[in-house]
TrEMBL record:
Nucleus recorded as keyword: no
Shown part of the complete sequence: 115 to 412 of 415
EC number(s) stated in the UniProt entry for this protein: 3.6.5.4
Similarity-based family: Belongs to the GTP-binding SRP family. FtsY subfamily.
Protein source organism: Sulfitobacter guttiformis
GO molecular function: GTP binding; GTPase activity; signal recognition particle binding
Keyword Hydrolase: yes
Gene this protein is translated from: ftsY
Keywords: Cell membrane, Cytoplasm, GTP-binding, Hydrolase, Membrane, Nucleotide-binding, Receptor
Annotated protein name in UniProt: Signal recognition particle receptor FtsY
Amino acid sequence: APDPAPTRGILGRLLGRDETPEIARRVLDDEMLEQLEELLIAADMGVDTALRVTANMAEGRLGKKLSVHEIKTLMSDEIARIMEPVAKPLPLYKKTPQVVLVVGVNGSGKTTTIGKLASQFRAAGKSVVIAAGDTFRAAAVEQLQVWGERAGVPVLTAPQGSDPASLAYDAMVKAEADGADLLLIDTAGRLQNRGDLMEELAKIVRVIRKKDPDAPHNTLLVLDATTGQNAIGQVKVFQEISDVSGLVMTKLDGTAKGGVLVALADKFGLPIHAIGVGEQIDDLQAFDPQEFADALTG
Ligand code: GDP
């Protein structure tokens, strides 16, 4: 049954019923640190990263009495410190068309993210072309066409089941002919057969390099925050089968488990280019480490 009480975050869980964070005080001892670790692990941060955060919090402060507000701030600052180096918007290059390959498992939010990105770049005055490279999923192609219409961006498609690499090549030709700034290429996300997917991605890369040896300029891995620690495994797999250059984390609106983002930053150090916070076209935001850390610990 759903919990009728509002979700209590980390801060809330440290407080008794009638306590306020500025007044309630706690000793930062081993027991307290263990409790904090458990709260971080429950937020899907993973054991290693949770331990690092609490160890850093304790440094020079073990046994000190602090207000709950101070403890929360310490924790949130530690998390923000881990996240700061990875908060980087997608770099834009002078050379065009800039080719962005978008990878990720089905359902992670690739299609939606491509639509949102296209819209943002359009709003910034860039011209964009989308290639519907998951040629096996008719629904994905249709979805992309809808997003393309919303964003005012042409979407290149190919008949169902046709070769995504040849579509990607055609899209390169069109993007170049149109003088487009960006080409966003959707890809299949069937991990059931890793070997096939690897071959498919490798072929796309091989073929677009015939037009531009530097392409793709970015390989964006889209991850679903609600899958928690599974995201770690997905980064590992996609690093094996493609040249992941940055991440977009979707569905951060629907989860108290965004902690996996901290674990990802800690483990892989890949740039987080944007976060998805809803299903609408404007629900893609730059990643703000302090805001994220405050929300996670609040
Ligand atoms: P794909 O299979 O990787 O292309 O995934 P889709 O783009 O089709 O997204 C799968 C589902 O997740 C859809 O219902 C989307 O509306 C939803 N979705 C994508 N991004 C977000 C997000 O940031 N927040 C929320 N709440 N839903 C999202």
